[in-house]
Amino acid sequence: MISQFFVLSQRGDNIVFRDYRGEVPKGSAEIFFRKVKFWKEDGEEEAPPVFNVDGVNYFHVKVVGLLFVATTRANVSPSLVLELLQRIARVIKDYLGVLNEDSLRKNFVLVYELLDEVIDFGYVQTTSTELLKSYVFNEPLVVDAARLQPLSPAAIFMQGTKRMPGTAVTKSVVANEPGGRKREEIFVDIIEKISVTFSSSGYILTSEIDGTIQMKSYLSGNPEIRLALNEDLSIGRGDYRSSFGSGSVILDDCNFHESVRLDNFDLDRTLTLVPPDGEFPVMNYRMTQEFKPPFRINTLIEEAGALKAEVILKVSAEFPSSITANTIIVQMPLPKYTTRVNFELEPGALGQTTDFKEANRRLEWGLKKIVGGSEHTLRAKLTFSQELHGNITKEAGPVSMTFTIPMYNASRLQVKYLQIAKKSSTYNPYRWVRYVTQANSYVARI
User: Do 300 and 382 touch, CB atoms closer than 8 A?
Assistant: First the structure.
């Protein structure tokens, strides 16, 4: 049960606001933004997704730069509300095609109609794009994709030598294209978030993959889809099949969307479904089987005097040279007495940035892209305000890393084929299968 829902821009402008129960003061949006903007509690720079101010619980998620927020005075499940906010964002994107400030302002009537159907008096009714089509009648005003800002490197997928259309998934699932025609295509994204912890000597202490197979269909008539996965796929740690070998993919557990039929899944690892409108997760899975991490992080800290030290960070990309990682950020907490940091990049380094965050004594190294098989090194000379007493390595670290790697997945889970029930011999829709790996928690101890 929630009291209010609102969407704020990066500047704090109130784009959408709906008060369902009248229990929370009207100025809650301003209170929330001021709290988030200047958050300094618990030594953190960013506000947590859930916090309380004067008896009001605030829940928020950030989606493409927009803040989706819910408030309530009730004691509700945080995970429930955060999932609701994500689903509301997804439903709005399904209808508008493009989710940004401009599209929300142009389609505010449609957005409010959606919100009134999704939530009634603070209680969730449905978040299904398919079901909402029966109750929502306003047509979206589609934002011209040509006016959108260019996609960031992390948002560009490559398949062979063909670049996937950058605006292909920025279309509404309910609006027709100009001329009344509809491009027949379907997108399947295998998105994996990996968590790895390395020891100080470089050995893997923990490793885990949280993955999802997302689908978005622009096929008319909702034809049946057959999605085939690896034949050597095993579910459950005890489900080792003797015919598989060391190369098999072993998932700890998984769950499927309600539209998926598993009639042949045990025989040939094929999923059959009739995709509903909008974007939805076909399958979620988790894997703790040992896998090869895409990056290795090596750290060396040496004292260079009573008030000085030197840090050497080396990042090695251990994936094929045909793949490029994007938007890499390496962070490392430094001793609390650090006052100045001088950085030294390797010769010819392009697209790299360095920064010393004085507020929380943190080193930050950004790399625009890393090609597979390459190595990059950063040297940082630290200056302290007082002499350290004890081991400097205990005062610094651990090193953490975030990244995005298009067309790469660590689990080796593959879509072998994507079959669409043909209406005629000339029906040949576009099929896009894309892979992406992101860092959920990638940490190396010092």
Answer: no
Q: What is the pLDDT, as a whole number, of residue 303?
A: 84
Classify residue 147: in a domain, yes or no: no
Residue 290 identity (one-letter amino acid)? E
Residues 111, 30 share a domain: yes
Torsion (CA) 144, 150, 155, 158 in degrees, nearest 10: 100
199 and 305 in a single domain? The answer is no
Residues 33 and 66: their CA atoms lie apart, in Å, by 12
Bridge partners of 60?
Answer: 69
Q: Which of 302, 422, 315, 308 is nearest to 374 (CA)?
A: 315
On whether residue 96 sits in a domain, the answer given is yes
> Are 101 and 24 in the same domain?
yes
Boundaries of domain holding 117: 4-132
Any domain includes 145:
no
Q: What is the pLDDT of residues 340-354, one digit of tens each?
A: 999 999 888 888 999
Note the pLDDT tens digit of each residue in 150-195: 333 334 343 333 333 333 466 787 766 655 556 788 899 999 999 9
From CA 397, how far away is CA 445, in angstroms rounded?
A: 7
List, for residues 230-254, the tens digit of each pLDDT value: 988 888 865 444 334 445 889 999 9
